[in-house]
Structure formats: C-alpha cells, structure tokens
Design goal:
TIM Barrel, Rossmann fold, globular, single chain, 25 strands, 18 helices, Immunoglobulin-like
C-alpha cells in the first residue's frame, strides 16, 4: 500500500504564500486564482513572526484564523510554518546578545533574516514558545496537513562565535570526548603547544594568527550542524507533543555542505528540498538530478517534496536569467521523475517590496496576463493528470557513498591541494553515470550496500576502520567497489592512518600511495587506458600495486588497468583493479573530467552488470522509473535537448500527459512523457 506525504490526495502543488504583505481583498482574489491553477497546498507563515507576535506579551492570530478558514473553504490545504526563521525587532532589542557574531568578532545586525545565534537560549525559548502557541491554536484546524519548521537552516548563519556559542561548544566537547585528556589526544594538541588543561580553556576557532588546529575545525563543523539541529528538534518536539499525527518537515537546500543531512533526515517525517537550478547553465539539469537523488536517498527511497523552486528567474544571482518557455514544466517533471511527490514554489504572488521583489512567482507582477501565469495553470492541470504517481518509489542501480565528516575534513586548509573539493570530485562521476542512464542512490559509508552490485566512492578522505571493514565485506560478498583519489587518508579525528594512504583500504584495493602528486592549475597529466588517451586534472598520485611489507605480493597487489604516460609519474599505475573474495575493488588515483571518468567507469559498470534504466536512449534524454506497490511502472522521459528525439520503449505504455498509448514516441525539445506501464506477470 502506498502512502501520500500528507492526507491531500495526488501530487502536491502550490507554494509559499505571504499574505501578511497584502490586504485581505487580495487574499480573496488569491484563493480564487489558486483554485483555477489547481493549487492544493500553500505554505503560510514562514516569515510572519512579527505579525503573529507584535510584542513580547502580545499575540495576533485573528488574521491567520481568517486566512486558514478562507483557504479551507476553497479546498486548499495548508503547510503551516512556525515562523521562527526571522526574529522580530522587539526580541532582538530586548536580547541583543542573540545576534550572531562572526569569527572576526563582528556582531551582525537586524534587518535581514536568520539573525540569531544557534546557541542563544533567549532565541530558543522564544522560538519554542511561538511554536507551541501555533500548535495549540491550529492543531485541529481542518486546513492543516503539514508543519513547516523554520526555513532553510544555515542559509545565512551557519555558525556563531559569541560567548554563548563558546559555552555550548565546550558542553558539546565534554559530551563527545569525556575528558580533556581525550580531547588533547583527539585534537593532537602536542603540535604547536596547543595542549589544554581544562575544557574552560577551549574557545571556538575564531580568527587566529595562522592555521587553526584542523581537528578543532572539524569538531566545530560537527558542532555547528548539531547546534542548528537542536533548534529544529526543540520545535519538532513541541509540534509532536501538541499536534500528533500531522507530519513535520523543514526545507533542506540540496547538496549543502554545512549540515549533515544524514543526521538531520532522521528527525524529519519526510524530506523536503529547495532547489534553484540556473537556467543559464546548460548542465543545470544534471546537478539537479544529483541533488534530487540525494533527497530521495536520505529516507531510503521514500518520496520527498520539492518545497521551493522558481517558476522563472530568481533575484539573488549576479545575472538572473528567466526560464524560457517549457523549461519550468520540464524541470518540475524532473523532480517528480526522481521521487518527489509534489512541486511547490517560492512564491505564490510576486512581492512588491523587499529583497525578493524581482524573484519570479506563480502569479507574476503582470498578474493573469503574464506568460508565467499561463504556465502555472498548465502545470497544475498536468499534475492532476499525474496524480496516481504519488506514493510510488524509485530505486537506484548503483550506490554513491557520501559522508559529511569526510566532506568537512577534505576541505580543511593545509592539504596537498586546495583544489580537492567534494562537489568538484563528485560531479564528474555523477555526470558520467547520468549520461549512461544509470540511476543512483546515495548512502553513507556504513549504509547497507548488499543490494547494489556497484558502489562508487569518488572520495573518502576521512574513513574509519569500521566503515572500511564494511566495504571489505561488501566486496568479499560479490560487490564491486570503485574508489576515487585521496581516500582512506585520515581517521575520525583527522589523524593520518598508520602507513599512510589508503589506510584501512590498503588490503582491499591492493595499492599503497607513496606520495600525492597534485597537478598545477592549467596543466594536465596524460594516461593510457588500453590505447585510449585520458587527461588527469588537479590531482594524481604515485601509487604502487603491492605492499613492500606484505609477504605475498601476488595476493595483496592489484593489476594495472591504466597508467600515466607523461610527467614524473610516466609508466606508473593510474587505475587499478583487484579481485577480493567474490568481488572486485577498483582504484582511480587521479581526477578526470566527466567524459574520461565515464571511460574508466564503463569497465566496472560492465563487470557489475549495471546498465541504463532504458537502453538506447538518444543524447539529451533522461529516463527514470517509479514503481507502485502493485508493480505498475511510471517511466519518465525528459528531453533536455534543443532538437526532437524519438524514444523506443522496452514495453508499451500509456502517456498520462496525453492519454496516448505508445510503443515509442517523439519528444519535442524540452518535451516530456510519463508512461504508465502495467505490471508484468512476474511483478503482478
């Protein structure tokens, strides 16, 4: 049995509505237009704190009462926000200490949003008080189907260096390390005479004369994610207590470095995401697919919600390019194609004042005469035709390993190259799989890999022995692992593993890294892959395929699949493969672009038997499948190209967008189809 995200049937459609910016006469017009557009869910109250609580002991809920009654009368459900993302002026002036402080000691002022210290007890108390008041008043309102906590945690303020944060950091360190002796060991404070005699001597990593202790910085990143999560959990606890049974979410921000979304997703009833691909980027849809795969993976494949997207242009890029006709529809369908059960927007009606007045909206400044309005109505009608897709799921054919601890540690200072950035390492691997039509799920290194014939680790700089042992067992059991460069370097404290890279992966991979060999900007190093020339950029490594200390080099060594052909590493191994138990472990010791990464990955893909979701796809066409509990499949076909493409189906189906039965179909530029394919006998 499939379950919807909320009790609203079908796919969710709507967006942020900020009625406090408008008169109540405009509200009446809005709800009529929402009904015309097919809107079934609106998010309200995101930035309404000052309206809801105009002073410390003054509340104004009457306007929100009337608003919720109005939308309910028009058959529209409400995602009610807790309004805590922007503390009002009266709270800031009563408690100026809640304003955040930068690493340089600058206190940030009121006048924007998210102007609070995550460790401020005054802010937390006021936020929870507001949340409890909203939950108590509206828990039984018939329009309420979803709670929306805060908004985009960490978007503007990810850290604070004030005394309250320092005290909270010390508390967090005591809980994590137990004793100051363990802290000193974990942080390696014998270096540069950084030893502490007590936790009271520890401060946040404020601006210092030179490089700051890297493990202190790593623990600080962990703490900052946890400090914001503690705020979210406090609000969610109030909602769960007072308004049980109504799901609770907060909007994530795609592949976002600052917050460990594996941990955060454990505290969400379902995942929601804000996504703003750039229409000026011809490859934006590839990165969007990657982000959506992560959102789906955070809850092990459960449907998620696109909480925000722009109907056309945003307002915060240096140049804000609109979406040309058809792109808004195509990118909305792409979110559904990768597991979303709804498409919401920022925002419903375009603002006339404030920092986002040039941000597009479902109802643009020109009103119903605008092109944007016509696209809003058309998309709403199509989503109603796709309603049966809600609740179905998709599963990736390969796994990609992602660990926030490793991401944070990889990008600390004083490494062999500052060019080794996680997203820059990940994107060519993902793009290569995308171009081959291979869908992926993201997993943490300790995740359950056994159902995936192929696992990819573009980088695991930080890797503990327990996770390495799980990868070893996965390969021994018949799995195929491809590991990228600069992996297995440090443990959870960012200490170099004994014997150096790849640390606990040495036996599994059958290689040792004698020395990293970063490549200067503008230069490259040539490789040969069975007669095919490749070019390494940014990074390479001097590796050896047997451990000089091992007694049986034939057992411990790996075979060379590709070798360097230029520079100091000429004739040395570049890509290796090692049989290990019933599986194989591959090592790619350099950074390649997407095309060359794909040429390497073709080998383990073939060995693992992992192929495209729909073989024979023409260039520019994306294909994914969602499956319902009864075995019905929904095949999404999206043409991201500028020319029409014909797609042959592996099984006949009916396009839900047109009602046409097909064994193949032609997609116009930016065109799409969603095929319902009945279950085969073995699936039924």
């Amino acid at each position: 049995m499939t379950m919807n995200l909320t009790r609203v049937p079908g796919l969710l459609y709507g967006g942020d509505w900020n009625p406090e910016q408008w008169s109540e006469e405009v509200w009446a017009e809005d709800v009529k237009l929402m009904a015309e557009a097919g809107v079934n869910l609106v998010t309200v109250g995101v930035f309404s704190w000052a309206r809801l609580q105009p002073a410390a002991h003054s509340w104004d809920f009457g306007w929100l009462d009337r608003l919720l009654d109005l939308v309910h009368a028009h058959g529209i459900a409400v995602d009610l926000a807790t309004a805590t993302a922007s503390p009002p002026a009266w709270l800031v002036r009563a408690h100026p200490e809640l304003l955040p402080v930068t690493a340089d000691g600058v206190r940030l002022e009121f006048g924007s949003r998210q102007h609070y210290c995550p460790s401020s007890t005054a802010y937390r108390a006021a936020a929870v008080r507001l949340t409890r008041a909203l939950a108590t008043r509206y828990r039984h309102h018939p329009a309420l189907v979803l709670w929306h906590v805060h908004n985009e945690y960490g978007d503007h303020v990810q850290e604070c260096f004030c005394p309250a944060s320092a005290a909270d950091f010390r508390r967090w360190l005591r809980e994590r390390h137990g004793t100051v002796e363990e802290l000193n060991r974990s942080w390696g404070t014998a270096f540069w005479s950084q030893r502490y005699n007590s936790f009271d001597q520890v401060e946040p990593p404020r601006t210092a004369p030179g490089p700051v202790n890297p493990t202190q910085l790593l623990d600080w990143r962990r703490f900052c994610s946890d400090a914001l999560l503690a705020l979210h959990r406090a609000e969610k606890a109030a909602l769960d207590e007072i308004s049980p049974g109504v799901p609770v979410t907060t909007n994530f921000m795609s592949m976002f470095k600052a917050l460990d979304y594996w941990e955060w997703s454990r505290h969400e009833d379902f995942v929601s995401d804000d996504a703003y691909p750039d229409p000026a980027d011809p490859r934006a849809h590839v990165n969007a697919a990657m982000n959506y795969d992560l959102m789906r993976s955070l809850k092990a494949g459960r449907p998620w919600l696109l909480m925000e997207q722009a109907p056309s242009a945003v307002s915060w890029r240096p140049v804000n390019v609109p979406k040309p006709p058809g792109l808004y529809r195509l990118w909305s369908l792409q979110a559904l194609a990768r597991g979303a059960d709804g498409v919401l927007h920022f925002q419903w009606r375009a603002s006339v004042a404030g920092a986002e007045k040039f941000h597009s909206a479902m109802l643009p400044h020109r009103g119903t005469a605008g092109r944007g309005w016509r696209e809003t109505v058309a998309l709403g009608a199509e989503l109603r035709r796709l309603g049966e897709v809600a609740g179905s799921r998709m599963r990736g054919r390969a796994a990609v390993l992602l660990d926030w601890d490793s991401w944070w540690a990889l990008e600390l200072d004083d490494h062999p190259s500052a060019r080794m950035r996680w997203l820059d390492l990940l994107r060519p691997w993902y793009a290569a799989l995308y171009e081959r039509g291979v869908t992926v799920d993201f997993l943490p290194p300790g995740g359950e890999l056994t159902r995936y014939p192929l696992a990819l680790a573009p980088n695991l700089y930080l890797l503990d022995t327990a996770d390495a042992d799980r990868l070893d067992a996965y390969v021994r059991g018949g799995g195929h692992l491809v590991c990228g460069p600069f992996s297995g370097v440090t443990d959870r404290h960012d200490h170099i593993h004994p014997g150096g890279q790849p640390g606990p992966l040495r036996e599994l991979l059958g290689v040792v890294v004698d020395e990293p060999w970063p490549i200067p900007d503008g230069e490259s190093t040539a490789l040969d892959l069975d007669g095919v020339g490749l070019s390494a950029l940014r990074w390479s490594e001097w590796i050896e395929t047997s451990d000089a200390e091992a007694s049986d080099t034939e057992t411990n060594g790996a075979e060379t699949i590709a070798h360097y052909t230029s520079g100091p590493l000429a004739n040395r191994p570049a890509v290796t493969r090692r049989r290990h138990g019933d599986g194989t472990a591959w090592y790619l010791s350099c950074h390649l672009d997407a095309a060359d990464t794909g040429r390497v990955l073709d080998l383990p893909l073939a060995e693992a038997g992992v192929g495209a979701e729909l073989p024979g796809l023409p260039a520019g066409v994306e294909a994914t499948r969602r499956r319902a509990a009864d075995g019905t499949e929904y095949l999404f076909l999206l043409n991201h190209g500028s020319v029409e493409r014909y797609v042959a189906l592996d099984r006949p189906g009916t396009d839900l967008l047109t009602g046409t039965a097909a064994t193949g179909l032609t997609l116009a530029p930016l065109g799409a189809a969603v095929l319902r394919i009945p279950p085969t006998e073995e699936r039924a």
